[in-house]
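User: Can you model how zinc ion sits in this protein?
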Amino acid sequence: MKGTLAAISALTTLGMVASVNAAPRELKWTDESLRGAIWEQPVAATVSPIIYMNNCSTGCTITPGSNNAPMNRSSIPNQTSNVPKYTGSAAQWNQLVACVRATYAAYNVQVVTDRPPAGTNYHMAIVAGTPQSVGMQSGVLGVSPFSCGYIANSVSFTFANVIPSNISELCWTVAQETAHSWGLDHKYDNRDPMTYLSGGPAMKTFQNQAGSCGEYSARQCQCTYAGTGASAMNSHALIMSLFGPSMPATPDTMPPAVSITSPAANATVVAGFEVTANITDNVAVAKAELRIDGNLVGTDMAAPWSWSAPASVGQGSHRIEVKAYDAANNSATGTVDVVIGFVCTGDGDCMGSEVCLSGHCVAGPDMPGGLGTPCADNGECTSGQCATSETDNYCVDSCDPAKADSCPSGFGCVLAGNTGVCWPGSGGDGSSGGCNTGGDGGTVLVGLGFAAVLFSRRRRR
Ligand SMILES: [Zn+2]
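Assistant: Here's the modeled complex, given as structure tokens:
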């Protein structure tokens, strides 16, 4: 075909040994009269750092002509060509993208998988289809336009459906074909992605070493490179001169955000209570520590961020702190204070106006913010929980709806979302689903269309 290469003739001549060598990864001169020309450093502004890896998920239609990646136009096919999508799995595609990124990691090159916005210059590496998709003979793994210089907005091809699951071979084919578009020749070195040779490391990297060009044997290079002339090529130096080194990653200085979701601030809790937290980070949360009264209780390395307080944390006030870290060791702490009430079996076991709820004493209806007192939001309640029916708002506390006697006398355990809460006047006779006289004189239906709704808890720091 037009632009037939040394590579193909070499394969023919050395057919006896071709089977031990890798499949051809071709290059195609945009203007073969430039063979042997001086490789020219392009004007920096014309060099795009973007490689768009396109797996043609909905098929690619490529028209023939001068290379223009945004317009899906390529100098490779002689007629409009349809390239079917990559047939490997999504996981294999992700591995391949990661491998190409790793191959270019040393350089200021961005490998993306979404088409850049209009007006952007980029190289499009089509990674899909077969050589027949663009009118080439079988056996070829890839092809790229080639000139002794940088081809802006070039379109290269890696015929991934020939070997869709061979991530290593596909990876260095993508690397080789993209670099052909920048004027890199084949290198006679099986450590370098520009190689035709099998063997060498599975993960090939652009070698920072001048060496012979060539496919299955050393030969003169097809371009005259600065520093090495036509007798050798340094892949790494050429790519570095085009793109420069990779930009150092911006240091992460943003700490995680910590919100203790349970218990609520100033809640009365029982011994062995659960502590749960929502923790987010702009990168990732590395670990979180629970401290109670300054003593380290536990360290979690992954979500869900939850702990049980030791039984040794007894009656009285306690400070709960959840301290989260990201990988850069930025940290943040969420704090709430709670009270463990006295253990009780009935209201008579509790001090003053406290009442007995699920075996511990909590503030009762005669105390400010106590159980069953009117409220407008969670912060007004000792329990940290204000619930509403359609007509009333009361401070509530958690109870077990399966246990008829888990609330103090004068209260019943009603469903509020997935949990039960003690609600004034709505229980005490052990029945459910009946009508009961509420504490405010109204009638509250239990289990018949009535459910208390907890106010959403406000963020606490
Ligand atoms: Zn090649």
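A couple of observations from the model: Residues 1-21, 428-450, 457-461 have pLDDT under 50 and may be disordered. The first helix runs from residue 6 to 13.
User: Helpful, thanks.
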